[in-house]
Amino acid sequence: MQIATIDDVRNAKAVVHEHITPAPLIRSYRLEKELNLPSDRRVWIKDYGWTPVGSFKLMGALNWMANHLDEIGERPVAAHSSGNFASGISFAGMKCGKRVIIVMPEDAPQIKFDLTRSFGAEIRTYDKATDHLTGERDRLTKQIAEEEDAVQASPYDHNDVIAGNGVGGLEITEELQRMGRSLSHFFCQVSGGGLMAGHALAIADAFPDAEIHGVEPTQADDFKRSLTANERVRLDQPTSICDGLLSYDVGQYNWPILKQHVKDSILVSDDQTIATMKWLYDTHGLLAEPSGAIAIAAGLHADANLDGDGDIVFVLSGRNVDKSTFHNWISAS
Question: For every residue of the chain, which 3-state class applies, written as one string?
Answer without folding.
Answer: CCCCCHHHHHHHHHHHHCCCCCCCEEECHHHHHHCCCCCCCCEEEEEHHHCCCCECHHHHHHHHHHCCHHHHCCCCEEEECCCHHHHHHHHHHHHHCCCEEEEEECCCCHHHHHHHHHCCCEEEEECHHHHHHHCHHHHHHHHHHHHCCCEECCCCCCHHHHHHHHHHHHHHHHHHHHCCCCEEEEEEECCCCHHHHHHHHHHHHHCCCCEEEEEEECCCCHHHHHHHHCCCCCCCCCCCCCHHHCCCCCCCCCHHHHHHHCCEEEEECHHHHHHHHHHHHHHHCCCCCHHHHHHHHHHHHCCCCCCCCCEEEEEECECCCCHHHHHHHHHHC
